[in-house]
Amino acid sequence: MVAVGLLLVPALAAATPSVHGNDAGAWDHFAILVWQYRTPPPGPDAAAAYARLNLRGIHLDNGFSDELLAFANENDFEYYVDHAAGKGDLHLYPREWEAFRAAQRESRDRPERPRCLHDPEVRDRLISTLRDNVRRASVGNCLAYSFDDEISTTSFTSPADVCWAPATMAAFREWLRVRYGTVDALNARWASDFASFAEAVPAQVDDLRYHHARPFAEWNLAPWADHREFMDDAFADLLTDLRYECNQLDPRRPAGFVGGQAPSTYGGYDYAKLTRAVQWMEAYDIGASNEILRSLWAGQAPHVQTYFATGAPHVDKWFLWYYLVHGNRGVIVWPEMGGKPWFDGAQPQPALDALADTFREVQGDIGRDLLNAEFSTDGVALYYSQPSIRVSWFMDIRPHGASWVNRSSSLNNANASDLLNRVAWTKWLEDVGVQYDFLSYLDVREGIADLSRYRVIVLPRTFALSDAEAAALRNFVHAGGTLIADYAPGTFDEYGAGRSTGVLDDLFGVRRDARLGVLDGAAIAEINAERHADPTPDRAEYAGAFRADGFVQYERGVTATVSDVMRESAPGPAFHATNDHGAGHTEYLNVTPTPYLWSRRAPEGFAYRRLLESVLARAGIVPRARVLRDGVEAHTVERLFWRAGETTYLCLVENPVRDAKIDGMGTAQGVPERGREDIEVHLTWAVGRATDARTGRELGSGSVLQMSWNPHEAAILKLQ
Length: 720
Prior knowledge:
It contains 22 helices and 33 strands. By secondary structure, it is α/β, with parallel strands linked by helices.
């Protein structure tokens, strides 16, 4: 039996809004919410401890006590409700997952997810628990409801070809029927010979690993990729059902989840679909998830971070300011520091006192002003493609062979070629002073994306494009836009089947011989996770790759077919081909941006920035602001713009590469510990009046502004 309401079509309906039936505008400020773990028990002492640190938010958990709810309401505390739909259905416990994984390693035969998502009992239990918690919590200063923490179709984003439970298989076969219409069409796509949809059985990873020895043009991942997409759909649709139930009970507050993972092949983390399913999220900032949420929700729904204080005040302050100016509406505090609780009885750790003023300020007017403004980009979009993530993952597992089942979530987060590529693009753009949005492949495929908003669309490691997406991108160029690809765009279709000719090759003015391979000609995983103990640069398969001007070239068999080519490397493939199409043009780089992550402060980083600056300049895009320290451009100071009516806020913040973790701060190399310093801001226009939005200090007028800032916080200039 298939649960009523579960998704039976290949994609979520485009009409499903990300904010529906609640007053999302009520959460219009930066909120610091303290998880109730090893914290003072409710009472006057706890209230005094929070007040000392300028904290005024907590969390309630499934089955919360009346005493804790009364404590929150009596002290006018804000809160969110976690595990509002319970624990153990959307999140699998570690002991259960490990037992499942052990069995999978032995047999690998048609694994069933413990507590199948299509089991009506599971759905009924989730809804029943949700109803109980929402009814009780809705009477106070509730900000939001979280169904559960670190939810997944597997465990985090660890791989397992689930789910083969009878209810799920029945739903999957109906999904196939809607997608393909006839079994003949399915057989043509899968190269199968099923007599009916009732016989359809998806492929598992081990069934298709033989493709690793073939050129990409001969790959066909559809029998596996369809199952992965179906599980993403089923997951998103179940969350949509829970959101609907929550909105029926409390239409004023958003419903979503916390502990969100990186975009991934496994776990249900297709952000194009999740942002249609839920109304708020706390997602670990891995794989650019923070900027993806900021973009796809466009400020209409809250997204927050987990806050792990480190005991180093300069890092802890930087974290709060960085995520505030990046559009987060708060943090959820895990109240441990150095392995010790934040509070000894009702006394905060002394190191926390250094943060009290920052806690107060970010929750005050400056946070409210920014979060009620609109993020302003430079007309650049980074393409978000879930089908490409699947293809990339399948390439990445080649070094593992049969041990791919051990590619855990944490291993994938540190080594996924698509993830590192995506983050490299964000830092590359930010360091040249350009802001961007992510653009959903689903919006483009369904024709609801307004591509005229953009002057430039970048295809980062976008292997897989449907014909509909390709047509929309082609129209974008012919209408005057600039399309940039790092390498191999559209060499697969949306099902994961390789193409002998890339769907946009003619637009980019290139041809390729896929038999020559990529990188060194043998490797297909850009990052070899079998060498996970080595530094990241040593895991990259670049030793035998062609290089041009020092840049690693990804494809070996690419040549240019048009005369307007910036350069042909000799020997080797085409490097940076451009092609004009009336007022629009294309830029095919054949360059992997991933090395920029570890070279941005080195001489190689300057070469990367010069390349991107020249490409963007041809599209008419130049940085709106430059920051100088002692007369030298500070490229690692990010420049973010927010607009509210006639007022523009320019936010400056140090921009390290953060290696985020799910159980701690991770690392953020490059957060300065030094004190205040003078900087000079050069704008491309003259402002009539500039003030320091944090202090009210007048900064003058014109296109060159001087100010003093603390480089481990954020400078916020109010420009009018």
